[in-house]
Amino acid sequence: MDSVLHYQGVILAQFIFFQWIEDFLLKQEFEFIWDEGNNQKNFQKHEVTSSESEEAFFNEMLIILGIQITPQCFEERFGIMGKSKLGRLLFISFTVRQGRIRVISARSTNKK
């Protein structure tokens, strides 16, 4: 199943689902690696903290979009949507490095 993320009729990203990413995320046996620059960027641009981003991965309403196929990226990117403890629905783009999750972008779905 494919998922398309769009805003005002413009396609922002397209994802294709693979079972292994769902299995990986639902096990919840992963840890996070954080890049300080991304932490600051996500908070400054989208008002999402690293801890709020992590909460979305463990929410029972987790929606796994899959592997991003457009736009193409240097490394494999994945997408999810999940709620934080604040009740905000977040879109999160991330990569998996050596079994650990590195969040690339986290934003509220209420904004672009």
Number of helices: 3
Give the N-terminus to C-terminus distance in angstroms.
Answer: 23 Å
Q: Quick one: how many beta strands?
A: 7
Largest sheet: 7 strands, mixed
Strand order of the largest sheet: 1-2-4-5-6-7-3
The average pLDDT value, as a whole number, equals 85
In terms of per-residue confidence, which ranges show pLDDT below 50 for 5 or more consecutive residues? none
Percent of sequence in beta strands = 35-45%
How would you describe the shape? Answer: globular
How is this structure best described in words?
It is globular and about 30 Å long. A 7-stranded mixed beta sheet has the order 1-2-4-5-6-7-3. β4 (63-70) and β5 (78-83) form a beta hairpin. It is built from 3 helices and 7 strands. The chain is an alpha+beta fold and 112 residues long. The model has no long low-confidence stretch (mean pLDDT 85). The longest helix has 11 residues, at 36-46. It has helices at residues 19-27, 36-46, 50-57, and strands at residues 2-7, 10-16, 31-33, 63-70, 78-83, 89-97, 100-108. Helices cover 25% and strands 43% of the residues.
